Amino acid sequence: MSTPLPLRARAEAEAKTLPPLLARARHLAGAVMLGDHGRRRAGMGDDFWQYRPVQPGDSRRHIDWRRSARSDAQFVRQREWQIAQTVMLWVDNAASMHFTSDTGLPEKSDRAQVLSLALTILLNRGGERVGLTEPALPPRRGAAQITRLAAALARDHDGDYGQPAFAAIPPHSHALFVSDFLGDLESLQSALTATADRGVRGVLLQVLDPAEESFPYRGRAIFESGGGTLKHETLQASDLRDRYLKRLAARKDQLQQLCRATGWRYHCHHTNDSAQSALLWLYRAFDQGGNPS
Question: How far apart are CA 120 and CA 283, in angstroms?
Fold first, then answer.
């Protein structure tokens, strides 16, 4: 059992990171909201959209008599279609996600957390429920849920590479898995296969550092896993470049094949690219309760 002092220290450390993470996620979400208005559709819902002239088949009780009195025509209040969906998040925060090749670039885990939390803010504004794939944080709406998610996303996980939890994902919901996906794919394959059998569809967002994409290393180099369990030293790092790039291309192909087989979508994002463009892609993938596949 943890002693009170370390527990308090960890809690204070998490509390310090929470406001900046929330602030950056809200700023990013606000930029996307300003630049993308989504596709509005008429239907069941509580939010007023527009007035339209009465059409054959409209019930008289739907006529807005106050608006109609201002013209010679009769009008009904058209409301926006709203179907609440459930979106479940798994955001890898294992050791491999803390890599960055340059001090001017964010860690992969930082970009993954900001994108996931910003997407949560957008989905919450749209009336959707968001939770974690772990049972500890079921899907809910509201500002309090966003704060809970921010705290949960900031926690580190053991091991070099993360393994997605999926037991708590409800049937016929949607999911977002964010990771570098550089570890063993067996657990990911099991997760996507099991959830697809329950009617779950979603997105794999692979987050990579640009150095992981280009392998710019030359001469003597020591490569070590984030958790320190794997280590390899070479005198000619450039000799490894072709083999590495082939393996990375094969890994991406595996991920895309897995998505095609299970009805998910795949997207790769690099930490030196615009976070806003990645969030906009994710937002559109989950927009309006549509199937991201």
Answer: 9
In 3D space, the residue among 147, 156, 152 whose CA is nearest the CA of residue 22 turns out to be 147
Nearest to 271 by CA among 207, 178, 213: 207
Strand-strand pairing, 231-234 and 221-224: antiparallel
Report d(CA 229, CA 160) in Å as an integer.
8
In whole angstroms, how far apart are CA 131 and each of 15, 93, 152, 173?
Answer: 20, 16, 10, 11
Please tell me the total number of residues recorded for the chain in this structure: 293
Rounded CA gap, 140 and 145, in Å? 6
| AA letter at 130 | V
| pLDDT per residue as tens digits for the range 89-142 | 999 999 999 989 899 999 999 999 999 999 999 998 888 899 999 888 999 999
Contact 269, 208 (CB under 8 A): yes
3-state secondary structure of 231: strand
Task: Supply the pTM of this predicted model.
Answer: 0.75
3-class SS of residue 262: helix
CA pair distance 190, 101, nearest whole angstrom: 31
More confident: 260 or 159: 260
CA distance 73 to 79: 19
Return left, alpha or beta for 223; rule: phi > 0 is left, psi -120 to 50 is alpha, else beta. Answer: beta
Going from the C-alpha of 263 to that of each of 74, 82, 247, the distances in angstroms are 45, 23, 24
* Residue-level pLDDT at 167: 87
Enumerate the β-bridge partners of residue 208: 270
